[in-house]
Amino acid sequence: MVVVAIPEGLPLAVTISLSFSSSKMRKLNNLVRKLASSETMGQATHICSDKTGTLTENKMTVMAAQTLEKVHLAGTSISKEFVSGLYAATHGVKIDDKPVWDVLVESVLWNSSAWIEKNDGSDKKVKEDYLLKGNVTEQGIIKMFMEQLGAEGCINKKNSLKEENILCVVPFTSSRKRASIVVRRPGFEGTNNEVRVYTKGAPDVLFDKVNYVLNDEGRIKYFSDETNVPMKLIKEGEPVGTNDSFRGIFERTVKLFANQAYRTILTCYRDMSISEFENLKYYNGNFEKDANREVLEENLIAIGIFGL
Hints:
The structure is a single chain. With 308 residues, the protein is an alpha+beta fold. The chain has two domains: 10-48; 53-307, 3-Layer(aba) Sandwich (Calcium-transporting ATPase, cytoplasmic domain N), CATH 3.40.1110. 34% of the residues lie in helices and 23% in strands. The chain is built from ten helices and 15 strands. The protein has helices at 10-26, 38-42, 52-56, 80-91, 100-109, 136-159, 203-206, 246-259, 274-283, 290-293; strands at 64-67, 70-73, 94-95, 98-99, 115-118, 130-133, 166-170, 178-184, 195-201, 210-214, 220-222, 226-228, 243-245, 264-272, 300-307. A hairpin with a 5-residue loop joins strand 10 and strand 11. Helix 4 (80-91) packs across helix 6 (136-159) and helix 5 (100-109) packs across helix 6. It is globular. It starts with 9 loop residues before the first helix and ends with a strand.
């Protein structure tokens, strides 16, 4: 038999020691909430954290966007002018007789796990008529659309996608860093555009899956084609009129947004006929597994990037 005796003064001595350590770390801007964590935090050399807004408020806001070869910056806070400027730049350009603005909205509202619901008044601190729920990043983009369309307009757009027209969903995972939805477009029956894939996610993951892009006229160009670099993306020492590939412009955009600590989300789409979709489904395990469905996320057309 082994008998272990703990001196009655040991717990007090340990508590005093940890308290002394935590007070010293507080002077180094290393706040320890639990004394038991003092040893762990005392050994830390770097502390990595997410964006301030995410940590303190659990909210995200679109502060920048790039689409149709134009960069839109909100400045220090989102404003009506920022949203209306993005709307004006994209609503006048059409693809398949539909404004690019509508394609942007669909690419997020239809391919999203966030949603809008009416405030039931259960939380007296919340005064808004409508509340956003679900994924925080998607909430931020939807909130921007609500500035232009209103809550009811966004709800109507989301509900315009009928259940019977959803052919396939590829959910977001932390390893994939992207999500997709495949929808049937009733107005394009029998054409090569009857089925549309909407994909959004991390640019660094999607760039290698993008082959095309929408230019400032709404025409589909190769991602490797060159064009003039927008003024806001001109690097120091480069002359105005510098050319770069569309991919290069998107990479410049990501760097610009990252330098301002924005999280970047790339939105894309792809069209195909119903027969092409059925063939892909047949030759890829009937899309029974998420991994089988990733074949749908190839040959994408880049629409734009949001910075949050």
